[in-house]
Amino acid sequence: MNTLELLRADRVLTVVRAPEISDARDLCATLVAGGIHVVELTYTTPDLPRHLERAASTAAETGAVVGAGTVQTGDQATQAINAGAQFLVTPGQGPEAAAIAEAARTAGVPVVLGAFTPSEVMTALALGSAAVKIFPAHQLGPKYFKDLNGPFPGVPLIPSGGVNATNASDFLAAGALAVSAGTDVVSPADVAAANWEAITAKAKAFCAAIAQ
């Protein structure tokens, strides 16, 4: 099952933003135990390639699909892919968006480019984005996804930013492919302290909320 198919089945991925990760393998296993299989480790965490390598090398053991987020340059894209990232995510479309997309295409890795406006969605699709991340999603809410479905029927959209267990199901009902669970599930404090039980409990609660 590829990343997009897994997202369509699970309807959630988690975005990890933490000042440190004690063990990326344990973090991924914790999230899978809570029902979330797609894990996005971000460049806002220092020494990201090392964490990606650890997570990717143990993916068969944990059952996680691990990618790199907050990718902003072509060099970062290549670095993440070489470390084992199975997908790439950008916060938006900076001057190196095309280079990021090309690195992903060359490696056969799906890229999810960030967008906010319809024009940016069009650009992301033209660059070969497998899905489009709408960020920050909370600014316009679930209704915006219904609006986007008009000109972009069938385009896989993923809301990110301000999505939580309370509003996630509304985004899905409005047509989102899946939602990004951030600090609502993986708080930086829990990750840094290796508080795996708390993260598993929050992941289970989030998955239960979107299943209703």
Automatic annotation (TrEMBL):
Record-linked Pfam families: Aldolase
Listed InterPro entries: Aldlse_KDPG_KHG, Aldolase_TIM
Domain of life: Bacteria
Pathway field: Carbohydrate acid metabolism
Keyword ATP-binding: no
Protein's UniProt keywords contain Signal: no
Keywords: Carbohydrate metabolism, Lyase
Subunit structure and binding partners: Homotrimer.
Record-stated family: Belongs to the KHG/KDPG aldolase family.
UniProt name for this protein: Bifunctional 4-hydroxy-2-oxoglutarate aldolase/2-dehydro-3-deoxy-phosphogluconate aldolase
